Please model this.
Amino acid sequence: MLSGPKSVMLKLPTKYKHTHSPQSWLSFKSFRNRYHNLILIAKKKFYSNLVSSSSTNPRRLWQTVNKLLHRKSTSPLPTSSSSVPLPDRFASYFTDKISKIHLSLSSDPTMASPHCPSPPASPPDFSTFRHASESEVSKILFSCVVPTSNLSPILSHLVP
Model:
């Protein structure tokens, strides 16, 4: 058996159906409006507390906001089941990009200049790469300037 505000709200329309009195209808409407207002106040308080509890941690705050707005995060990176097709897709993307740039430059007469040689007839082929050694990768990483930022999730001294 129901008890509390919800049971009262369910009994008031029944009372109106039996009596058809304007007073019972006004009682139901008044109680229904108070009930909905209390629910709205409780929701506002809940969501306000949820957001304010995350306000000191920006990452958690954005996760909370995205969750409340039912946003799903999508990865900007392409997915691939094996490691072979992904590099091939990157290589063909850049090869196509170079071909398109080459075509647009050769078809634009304003780009012709005696000081700038025309690009080669075909773009270089990116189908084969030699593997980089560990020392080459380390040399490149150590020569890079490491920016320091409070927003970076990785500590800068851990990168090289």
In short: DSSP finds five helices and no strands in the chain. The first helix runs from residue 5 to 19. Residues 5-68 form one domain. Residues 90 and 126 are 10 Å apart (CA to CA).
